[in-house]
Design a protein that fits this description.
Order of helices and strands of chain A: EEEEEEEEEEE
Distance between the termini of chain A: 41 Å
Largest sheet of chain A: 6 strands, mixed
Number of strands of chain B: 11
Structural class of chain B: mainly beta
Number of helices of chain B: 0
Largest interface: A-B, 28 and 31 residues
Helix content of chain B: under 10%
Oligomer: heterodimer
Chain lengths: 115, 115
């Protein structure tokens, strides 16, 4: 059974700092990994998707890496801003077919960026 | 235009009642999902439909019955509501057969409170 763990559970940093969020998963047979952002009382916004054959993906100030063999992914946020404050969720997908479409989520990292 | 929409956004009801939550996506996706986010913010899949066919059915009480009238809609009906059903329910969708297989897009959530 796949388990996804995110460390740290909460993080508070001053504005401008570069930071790293960690995600680990127990079963390396994943199809892809997705990072989401969730604002309080809101839905999930997809940030980055890394397919299992890829090592990293970048979008603006965000960079996500994937080391499938060791079961790890990191989300790097450069020059953090107060608007980055949210909960960041890591989720893995199993298998290519529709039967493997389920996402298994970590419990999230709650990020606070202080002005 | 909202890509994945859910109604209602909030639902407060008495124990024992029957209620429905509706979900619609206008992304042209062929797979839709229901996830439950509990009080500890942990997200877990409940159901998945592909082309109106049920493909994932996690260990969910049979009081929960999903229905997909067409590829763009996936509704969730809950019978005999219990206190433990209080949670936020998220609908999501994805498309298969593309380079970004299984990338899931989420709705804003429905906060269900059972009194």
């Amino acid at each position: 059974k796949q388990e996804v763990t995110q460390i740290p559970a909460a993080l508070s940093v001053p504005e401008g700092e570069n930071l790293v969020l960690n995600c680990s998963f127990t079963d390396s047979a994943i199809y892809n990994l997705q990072w989401f952002r969730q604002d309080p009382g809101k839905g999930l916004t997809s940030l980055l998707l890394i397919q299992s054959s890829q090592r990293e993906q970048t979008s603006g100030r965000l960079n996500a890496s994937l080391d499938k063999s060791s079961g790890r992914s990191t989300l790097y946020i450069a020059a953090s801003q107060p608007g980055d404050s949210a909960t960041y969720l890591c989720a893995v997908s199993h298998g290519r077919g529709t039967s493997g479409s389920r996402l298994t989520f970590g419990e999230g990292t709650q990020l606070t960026v202080n002005p | 235009d909202t890509a994945v929409s859910q109604t209602p956004k909030y639902l407060v009801t008495q124990m024992g009642n029957d209620k429905s939550i509706k979900c619609e996506q206008n992304l042209g996706h062929d797979t839709m999902y229901w996830y439950k986010q509990d009080s500890k913010k942990f997200l877990k899949i409940m159901f998945s439909y592909n082309n109106k066919e049920l493909i994932i059915n996690e260990t969910v009480p049979n009081r929960f019955s999903p229905k997909s009238p067409d590829k763009a809609h996936l509704n969730l009906h809950i019978n005999s509501l219990e206190l433990g059903d209080s949670a936020v329910y998220f609908c999501a969708s994805s498309r298969h057969g593309t380079s970004r297989v299984n990338e899931q897009f989420f709705g804003p959530g429905t906060r269900l409170t059972v009194l």
